[in-house]
User: Fold Putative oxidoreductase from Neoroseomonas alkaliterrae.
Amino acid sequence: MDMLHIPVDALTTLVRDVFVAAGCDDAEAGRIATHLVGANLAGHDSHGVVRVPRYVEWLEAGHVVKGQTAEVITDGGCFAVLDGKWGFGQTVAPQAVALGIARAQEHGVCVTALRNAGHIGRVGDYAEQAIAAGLISIHFVNVAGSVLVAPFGGVERRFSTNPVSIGVPLPGKPLVLDFATSLVAEGKVLVASSGGKKLPEGALIEPDGRLSTDPHTLYGPYDAIGPRNPANGKGAIRAFGEHKGSGLAFMCEMLAGCLTAGGTSGPVGERGRIANGMLSVFISPRHFGTQAEFERMGLAYAEWISACRPADPAQPVLLPGEPEEQRRAERTRNGVPLPQDAWASILATATRLGVRSPV
Ligand code: NAD
Assistant:
């Protein structure tokens, strides 16, 4: 498959211009562009610029609202409930995280419960926001109104892809664990359907229980270029890690869907629009009085793990966040690789909005 390599600045400018043309102000359009391109740089193409056409459609359909500010519904000092009011996730999630950071720096810990956020994208971004402030953070995310994933032992959709992220700020070695609780993120099925990386064995399941790697299982029939709608498919993505991943996905619904009061993936099924809920815990090691030990022990332990003899000498053992760090360095140099179909879909959206590509 031929990949185009788009320089980072040109891609960021194009995406920003698309969202300005779609009606966002410069700051919001810039945030969305930086976030999406940042996901590509981290190697998570599923949450990168491939999402542009869908985000624009959601804005045009009123499923997501430009220029929103997350509203604090409950303020308990070291905890808060915030309503994103269907604003862009790249706007309202950083606002909730900024509040969590400020309060954890005051109290030592803070729990924020964000609901009704538009798609917040790569959750690791928010763990990185906390790391930059010297905080540990834990994020449980659900997707209200989106059913895509079959629970362990089932063949029907019940969960969404419910990601979890944990960020740990070791000096010079930021650690970011960030993954979907589905065997693959939905965006990876999207990327595979646009000529990108193929899905791993057993990623999807047909209604009769047969395992599949064919994106049509999720999207039903679709054209090479153009939107994909999971509502048109009959199959499901599988939860990762058998009963354990399935249980974690279930708990994301409890924490990010029920406790935030934003709602779960069902049972009403697809509602036409989706919203992320995110329960975040922020922890300040400085307040715990163990900052020095935390850093010393953390770095020594990380080093010991890295020194583990690899099964394949060409594949050293990596820490959470290291694959993203490596890809970021490589892609910043060489540009963001995009399959032709994905690039054509972005350009089609840009052209429709009267935006010319700088490349
Ligand atoms: P993934 O399967 O690529 O796993 C990524 C995690 O595993 C990272 O923490 C990475 O550092 C670590 N990792 C990867 N390879 C490793 C190795 N060889 N050794 C050690 N650690 C390794 O991620 P995914 O499940 O495909 O998720 C992709 C992205 O999708 C995430 O950023 C997630 O936040 C995002 N997502 C968002 C939503 C949403 O609703 N907003 C939903 C689902 C997923």
Notes: The chain has a mean pLDDT of 95. DSSP finds twelve helices and 13 strands in the chain. Residues 3-61+333-352 form a domain with the Hypothetical Oxidoreductase Yiak; Chain: A, domain 1 fold (CATH 1.10.1530.10). The longest helix spans residues 89-107.
